[in-house]
Design goal:
Elements: E1 9-13, H1 18-34, E2 39-45, H2 46-52, E3 58-63, H3 69-78, E4 84-89, H4 94-101, E5 105-110, E6 126-127, H5 136-146, H6 162-172, H7 174-177, E7 180-184, H8 197-209, E8 212-216, H9 222-233, E9 239-241, H10 248-257, E10 260-263, H11 267-274, E11 279-283, H12 288-291, E12 301-302, H13 304-312, H14 336-349
Parallel strand pairs: 1-2, 1-4, 2-3, 4-5, 5-6, 7-8, 7-10, 8-9, 10-11, 11-12
Helix pairs in contact: 1-5, 1-11, 6-10, 8-9, 8-14
Length: 352
Amino acid sequence: MTDSITYSDICILRLSAIGDVCHAVSAVQAIQKAHPNAKITWVIGKVEAMLLADLPGVELVVFDKKQGKAAYQQLKLQFKGRKFDVLLHMQVALRANLVARCIPAKVKIGFDWVRSKELHSLFINKRIAAQQQAHVLEGFKGFAQAIGVADYQPNWAMPVTEQDQITADELLGAERLAGRIFVISPAASKKERNWLAERYAKLAEHAHSQGFHVVITGGPTELEVTLSNEIIAATSTPIVNLVGKTKLKQLLCVLKRAALVLAPDTGPAHMAVTVGTPVIGLYAHSNPKRTGPYLYQNYVVEVYHQNLLKQTGKTAEQLPWGTRIKGSDLMSQITVDEVTLMFDLVVKKEQL
């Protein structure tokens, strides 16, 4: 589904999460190239806006979910008297659907029937083309194609300042900048999606033995701080601990300086993709073909498919695309040997 309409005022709706807005940036920037005279407004979550602040040519309108009903009223007030040519409604969650009600647009494009959930269909009047077993990023490409953007190879121009890079470089230090940096971003949003601390430590030891400087990154939450401390305690390998010490843009700059990143299903894995840093993704609960690091899906180590078959008796292709599986110990099925083997493969293939 494409069209040849000229658009002058386009609204994007994708509130969260970090990984998903990273995927969406590639679609937004492709839209900018195809419709260079269009004004683009992006309604986005508060945390995600911290990463994308000053995105070239894009007005970010922050929706802060913590404000409750007041956030919806503020949005209505901000858009009063305005009418977008088109709203690209890129999120099916109920909160996002309610946000869509507050955005005046002539056309509201949403997901196809199969991917519509949580009353999504009630808040749109046009749909993107159906896709079979698509990565999240491919879904966003569908929105760009729906307004006349030809198929494109995703690329990113992420908004960071010189000061962001300087701060990141100061945290890394001259010695590490002069060598190869291996970043471990160990924590996902839920504990069950994290690999084991002692196994991360083993990869740190292996990377160090191969001449890499090891850096751990993450936010200031108790889960992230505890996990990073456990990793450091499990090895004598020198590790630079940047957990809780970087803002999102500074973290992006750290990831850009890295030669290689190791991460579970978490936002920084996708941030690394946007700056061209190879990622080894560790997956057990969600399908990496849908949510894995987009440019580095061949570098994923996963136990998702075997557990899906064990729990349901069916393959991913036989179930609703994106089916998640449950279990508190699934990540423990990923072995140190498997990840070490992938590490060596990536180092050789990427000539790191």
